[in-house]
Amino acid sequence: MSYPYADDENVNIPAAVPVPKVDEYADKFFIDLFAQVLRKEYSDAIESILLHRDESRNFALQVMYTDISEEKFILFRMLPHYPLKLLPLFDIAAKEVALEIYNTHPLKESMIIKEHMRVRLNEVPKCYTIQRLPKSEDAGLLVVLRATVVRAGNSFTFVIYVQ
Prior knowledge:
The chain is of the alpha+beta class. It has a domain at 22-125: mini-chromosome maintenance (MCM) complex, chain A, domain 1 (2-Layer Sandwich), CATH 3.30.1640.10. A two-stranded parallel ribbon has the order 1-2. A two-stranded antiparallel sheet has the order 3-4. The longest helix is centred in the middle third of the chain and has 22 residues, at 83-104. Helices cover 36% and strands 16% of the residues. The chain is built from 5 helices and 4 strands; from the N terminus they run H-H-E-H-H-H-E-E-E. This is MCM9 N-terminal domain-containing protein.
């Protein structure tokens, strides 16, 4: 298995473990795995989003890529190779966990289910960060572009999916 962006010798990728085929698993399998990670690590963040009064806004649930690797190694291995399949399932899992929190929370009356809540990955490993324009061989892979917004002066990470 080759990693097109693993040029850095300091990147430790366990290449001995093959990447499973995404079609070997049902969508519900991935939704359940994602939901387990979100329940354990991001319940407070989801609760905060639900307590926000403005339901028309877009809400980004910031998920650290390393939390996925620590909890569910199969997701860590498959996500860079099948982002178009798995990232929408991550959003579904977030909505399921949000609904669970909403239904069991003592402040349920103060909460609003958010239709526009999306998972955003942070701290994607350096091996998936490219230092060039995306090419055709990047199609279907998770590609991270790091850029600076000149007006704000801050560095942002944009996770894009090359189709």
